[in-house]
Amino acid sequence: MNKHLENLFKKDPIKFAFEIYDSQFDKENTEFITVDEGYLMYYRKFDPATIILYAEKENTAKKLLSLIAEDRFILFIEPKWSQLLNFNNIKVYPELLMVCNSPKVFNTGNVRKLSIDDKNDILNLYGEDRGKVLLNMLSEGKTTAYGLFISHLVSAAYTWIETNDVAVIGGVLTQEGFRNKGYATSVVSILTQDVIKRGKVASLYVREDNAPAIYVYKKIGFKEYEKRLWVSVNTELKPL
């Protein structure tokens, strides 16, 4: 990674958290292609690949989009470049990036940190694929996860990535039949408190049309930081 990108990322460690993390801790799956002041960041650990596009000028954004040769991918791009998207079979989901520095904690009890000892509960809640990803992250010490138990795990959340400055929260899920009881609010608020106590900013992405989730996050203390587009090209995937 060149010096220009290093300096750019240092200016906004919240916005560029994934670029910072992947370039430091997952280099074998990460590739940067730079054009002028912008870049594409490819992350190929999973199928389909994910691509982050950053550009300050429209001409740079056009050049970068023209370099994408994949048939299937997930693209993250700023809303100001939406008019440049001309891929086939495209679905666009606007998202908010929200941040919190001082959370209000809602402790409904029975919330604790998760570990690999909770394997069966994690697999039951998240399913085989997502559950195994979380278990691998726990075994490698790459995530902080909390869950709420009512005889079994019914709600959980964890950090996707953690840099020196930021922890990005994701994987917020409550089992059907236990929703609308404040369980996710409790889990996310306690996880956020853990992040803040360790001197990091807590952040998360949420779909702009997910009003109930945005309400919960604002109640905890999250505020809108910026927007991005989650773009699916020839996939059935969509943000949770």
The CATH superfamily label of the largest domain reads Gcn5-related N-acetyltransferase (GNAT)
Question: CATH class of the largest domain, please?
Answer: Alpha Beta
Query: So what's the overall shape?
Result: globular
Main sheet record: 11 strands, mixed
Instruction: Report the mean per-residue pLDDT as an integer.
Output: 96
Oligomer: single chain
| Strand/helix succession | HHEEEHEEEHHEEEHEHE
The name of the CATH topology of the largest domain is: Aminopeptidase
**Percent helix among the residues?**
25-40%
Description:
- This protein has helices at 3-11, 17-25, 58-66, 119-126, 128-139, 183-197, 211-220; strands at residues 30-35, 38-43, 49-54, 73-77, 90-100, 111-113, 145-149, 153-162, 166-174, 201-207, 223-233.
- With 240 residues, the chain is of the alpha+beta class.
- It folds into 2 domains: 3-87, no CATH class; 100-225, 3-Layer(aba) Sandwich (Aminopeptidase).
- It has an 11-stranded mixed sheet with strand order 1-2-3-4-11-5-10-9-8-7-6, sandwiched between helices.
- Strand 1 and strand 2 (38-43) form a beta hairpin.
- Helix 4 (119-126) packs antiparallel against helix 5.
- The radius of gyration is 18 Å and the shape is globular.
- The two termini are 31 Å apart.
- The mean pLDDT is 96.
List the helices and strands and how they pair.
Elements: H1 3-11, H2 17-25, E1 30-35, E2 38-43, E3 49-54, H3 58-66, E4 73-77, E5 90-100, E6 111-113, H4 119-126, H5 128-139, E7 145-149, E8 153-162, E9 166-174, H6 183-197, E10 201-207, H7 211-220, E11 223-233
Parallel strand pairs: 3-4, 9-10
Antiparallel strand pairs: 1-2, 2-3, 4-11, 5-10, 5-11, 6-7, 7-8, 8-9
Helix pairs in contact: 4-5
